[in-house]
Amino acid sequence: MNFAQPSSVLIVDDEAGIRTALRVNFARNGWTVETASGVTEAARLLESKEFHLVVSDMRMPDGNGLEVMRSARKVSPSTAVILLTAFGSVPDAVQAMRGGAFDYLTKPVSFEQLEEAAARVMQPVKDAIRPDTSDTGSIVGRAPQLLRAISRARAASSTDADVLVEAESGTGKELLARFIHEASNRARKPFIAVNCAAVPEHLLESELFGHARGAFTGATTAKPGKFELANGGTLLLDEIGEMPLNLQPKLLRALQEREFERLGETRSIKVDIRVIATTNVNLASMVDEGKFRSDLYYRLNVIPLSIPALKDRAGDIELLANYFVEKFAAKLGGPAPRLSAEFVDRLNAHNWPGNVRELGNFMRRVCSLHPSVLLDADCFDQEFQTRTKAIPAAASAPLVIAGAPIRQLERVHLENTLAMTQGNRTQAAEMLGISIRTMRNRIREYGLPPRRYA
Ligand SMILES: Nc1ncnc2c1ncn2[C@@H]1O[C@H](COP(=O)(O)OP(=O)(O)OP(=O)(O)O)[C@@H](O)[C@H]1O
C-alpha cells in the first residue's frame, strides 16, 4: 500500500462543523484530506488507503479515538495519530498516550496548535536536533522512530502520569527522562535519579525511603530518601527490573498513595512526584517468570515509551559521531576533525550493541589517539582493531557460524571480551560501551560463571 500523496490526513469527528473547519485548514496547508464521521467509517477508509496522519476526536457516538488508533495501527503502524481530548480530561490524555498516540491536544483546539503537532509528524528533523553540547537535555538524532519517541515524551511531559521507558542499554533512556522532566512544569524542581542496580540490595529501601536515626547499624543520623528529595519534581528509577521482590510491595504502595514511611519510623510522609522508570530488560517477561510483580508493572507502565537501538536509526550514527567529535573538540579547544566517507561507512557497518554510549566512547578514543583534521578508514581500523584484537587463542568461547542467532553472537562476544580483560567486568563493559549493570545482567542471563567475571 502506498501513502496517498502529498501529506495525507484523515479527520475523524462526529461534529460536521469541526470536520469542515479542519478539512479547509489542512487543505489550505497543502494536505490531502479525507474525513469520517465516526469510528466505523474511519476503519473503512483506513483499510482502503494509508494516511500519514489521523486526527481523531476521543469521544464519538459509535466508539472512541482509541479504537480509531487501533484500526490505523492494524493496517499501517507508521501512521501517526493525534487525539483530541475533552478539556481537563486527564484520564483521556493518559489513555491516549498509553495507547500509543503521537500526541494529544485538549479541546478547544486552535488550528495553529494542530498544525504545529502535524508539522512534527512530517518535518520532525529540525525539532529534534539540539546543538546543545551539555550532557543533559540534548537528544541528537533524526530517525523517525527516535523523533516519535521524543514527541511522545513531550506529550507525556504535559501530563503528570508515570512513565516507563523500555530500551536497550546506552540508547538514551536517562536522557529522555531528563527531557520529560525539563519539558514539564516540574522543571524547576529536583530531578532525582536512583540506579536500582547500583545500590546494594540491603541499602535500597533506605536509599529510596530514608531512615530514622538508629534504624539500623550505621544509621547514626536520620536521612531522607530519594522519594522525599524528589518532592515537587521527578524521580527516575533507573533499572527498575533490579528492584528486589521483597521491596516491590512498599514501592507499589508509595506509587499508588504517594505516601510511605522512613525505615524505623511510623509517621507517613506524603510527596508530590512524577516517577519515570527505565529498564533494558523486558519487564513483561520478568512478570511471566515471577520475578517482577504484575501489579507493580501495571502501575509503573502508565505511559510506555521505547527508544530504538542505534543500529536501527539510519543516519543517526553519522550525525551522532559528528556531534561527539564537535563536543570533544570544544572541550579540548581545537577544531573538530572531519569524518571521511570511508570512516562513516565503517561506522555504519558496525552494529553498536552498546548503542550511543559505545559510539560516544569510541569517538572519544579515536579523537584523542588520532589528532588529525580528517578521520579516515585507517583511524577507524586501527582503533577498532585495538578494541577487538588480542582475543587470547585460549578463549574458551566457540566460533560463531554465520546465520547463528544474534544472542549467540552476543554471548560469544561477551565471553571473548571478558577473556581479554582477564574477567574484569568493568573494563569489559567500558570496551563494549555498556554499563556495568548491563554487563552484570548479561552475565546472569547467559549463565556465565559469575566468579570468573568478578
Ligand atoms: N540521542 C542522543 N544524543 C546525544 N547523546 C546521547 C543520545 N543518546 C544517548 N546519549 C549519550 O549516551 C550516553 C548513554 O545515555 P543514557 O545514560 O541516557 O542511556 P541509558 O539507555 O540510560 O543507558 P543504561 O541503560 O546503560 O543506563 C550518555 O552519555 C548520553 O548523554
From TrEMBL:
Gene3D superfamilies: 1.10.8.60, 3.40.50.2300, Homeodomain-like, P-loop containing nucleotide triphosphate hydrolases. Pfam families: AAA_lid_14, HTH_8, Response_reg, Sigma54_activat. GO terms for biological process: phosphorelay signal transduction system; regulation of DNA-templated transcription. The keyword Transcription regulation applies. Coiled coil: none annotated. PROSITE patterns: RESPONSE_REGULATORY, SIGMA54_INTERACT_2, SIGMA54_INTERACT_3, SIGMA54_INTERACT_4. GO terms for molecular function: ATP binding; sequence-specific DNA binding. Residues 8-122 form the Response regulatory domain. Residues 139-368 form the Sigma-54 factor interaction domain. The modification 4-aspartylphosphate is found at residue 57. Keywords: ATP-binding, DNA-binding, Nucleotide-binding, Phosphoprotein, Plasmid, Transcription, Transcription regulation. This is Two component, sigma54 specific, transcriptional regulator, Fis family.
